[in-house]
């Protein structure tokens, strides 16, 4: 179980400072939740993850179900012992893979639609590689091609065996191309699955319900009211929010306004640096995002002076640290020129150093926002 206490509310926005207590430690919110898809932050060990100031991680139910399997993880004593990480953990439900391996893969689009000329996904339409039913979703394993089924009952059972502190109800994350009729039908499934998840859970893990509704205000409000009325321990805001930042923030505020104030709110899959102040001011407590780690592995460093593509030749003779204002061990000990060399030589240590720095930088960025809330600046 968890205990959530709001210790400071902003007078200038909906931002707040909270303490999220779990059996594996306390998380001070708002905070970033780095994504440990396969029970690891790629290129870092668990000790290094802690040194980046990360307070809590989220692992991927779908991927861990396929490999190594929740039964094996349970034999090791659950994710915390399997990972050697005595810190709070979340697991998602697998609902995002309904989108990413379905219509997202079909049309090559993420949660934000870049090509607005694409047509709508209509009611009854199915993705090429998945079959979405009222009871759940039929997938194909990316390891051996075998068919597997994931529904609300299955998702809860898998997450219980994985043993994270916070788990999520199974849902369908809809595509930004979904028509209103499709989104409405999907929403009704998500709501039904939420009730099933509540009935199925047998452990003391905290269970979060997920608000969906896509870019449609009335559906977002309907979903937030319904999910907010159920006895969840906290709430996730999922899916897509339209094609620009203003729409995203407006939709987020609408969703949050319909949820119980005293319970924690988690935003799923949003966390570009420019978005973080906006979502925190809207009232988000925790949020997960692959940006700091995903881009690090591709040579992109986030700094107080802007983003750097460390692979560019201009950095080959650069003796400066990534960021002179950063106190992480990478910036204290390594030059841009050295890290540039590692990427050009395709050495994995380059990915490790940038991953560490980016996580430290993002966590410090959010830490400073917490300080500003405490001081009444935000």
Brief synopsis:
The chain is an alpha/beta fold. The chain has helices at residues 46-51, 61-66, 70-75, 79-83, 95-100, 103-107, 152-162, 180-200, 217-228, 245-257, 276-282, 291-296, 329-333, 336-344, 348-374, and strands at residues 3-9, 16-22, 25-29, 31-34, 57-59, 89-91, 131-132, 137-140, 147-150, 166-168, 206-211, 234-237, 265-267, 286-289, 300-303, 306-309. Helix 10 links the parallel strand 12 (234-237) and strand 13.
Considering the chains and any ligands shown, give keywords for the structure.
TIM Barrel
Query: At CATH's second level, what is the architecture of the largest domain?
Result: Alpha-Beta Barrel
The shape, in one word, is globular
Number of H- or I-type helical stretches: 15
Fraction of helical residues: 25-40%
Sheet/helix structural class? alpha/beta
Q: What's the gyration radius in Å?
A: 20 Å
Mean pLDDT: 95
The main β sheet shows up as: 8 strands, parallel
Determine the CATH topology of the largest domain.
TIM Barrel
Percent of residues in beta strands: 15-25%
- Count of strand segments: 16
CATH class of the largest domain: Alpha Beta
End-to-end span in angstroms? 31 Å
| Spatial order of strands in the largest sheet | 4-14-13-12-11-10-6-5
CATH superfamily membership of the largest domain, which one? Queuine tRNA-ribosyltransferase-like
Tally of domains: 2
Q: Segments where pLDDT lies below 50 for 5+ residues?
A: none
């Amino acid at each position: 179980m968890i205990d959530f206490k709001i210790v400071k509310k902003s007078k200038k926005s909906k931002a707040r400072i909270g303490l999220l207590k779990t059996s594996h430690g306390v998380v001070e919110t708002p905070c970033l939740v780095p994504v440990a898809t396969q029970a690891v932050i790629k290129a870092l060990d668990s000790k290094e993850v802690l040194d980046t100031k990360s307070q809590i991680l989220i692992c991927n139910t779908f991927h861990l179900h396929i490999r190594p399997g929740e039964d094996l993880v349970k034999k090791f004593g659950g994710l915390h012992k399997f990972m050697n990480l005595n810190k709070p953990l979340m697991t998602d439900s697998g609902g995002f893979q309904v989108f990413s391996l379905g219509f997202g893969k079909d049309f090559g689009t993420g949660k934000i639609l870049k090509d607005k000329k694409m047509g709508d996904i209509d009611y009854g339409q199915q993705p090429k590689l998945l079959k979405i039913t009222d009871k759940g979703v039929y997938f194909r394993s990316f390891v051996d091609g075998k068919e597997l089924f994931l529904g609300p009952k299955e998702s809860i059972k898998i997450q219980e065996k994985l043993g994270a502190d916070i788990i999520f109800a199974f849902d369908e994350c809809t595509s930004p191309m979904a028509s209103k009729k499709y989104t409405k039908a999907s929403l009704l499934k998500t709501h039904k699955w939420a009730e099933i998840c509540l009935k199925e859970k047998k452990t003391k893990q905290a269970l979060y319900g997920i608000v969906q509704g896509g870019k449609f205000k009335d559906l977002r409000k309907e979903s937030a009211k319904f999910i907010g009325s159920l006895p969840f321990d906290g709430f996730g805001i999922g899916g897509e929010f339209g094609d620009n930042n203003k729409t995203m923030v407006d939709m987020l505020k609408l969703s949050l306004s319909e949820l119980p104030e005293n319970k924690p709110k988690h935003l799923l899959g949003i966390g570009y640096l420019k978005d973080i102040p906006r979502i925190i001011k809207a009232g988000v407590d925790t949020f997960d995002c692959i940006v700091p780690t995903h881009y690090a592995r591709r040579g992109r460093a986030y700094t107080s002076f802007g983003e750097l593509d460390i692979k560019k030749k201009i950095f080959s003779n650069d003796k400066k640290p990534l960021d002179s204002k950063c106190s992480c061990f990478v910036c204290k000990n390594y030059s841009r020129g050295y890290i540039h060399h590692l990427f050009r030589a395709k050495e994995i240590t380059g990915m490790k150093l940038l991953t560490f720095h980016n996580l430290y930088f993002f966590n410090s960025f959010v830490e400073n926002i917490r300080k500003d809330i405490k001081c009444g600046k935000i």
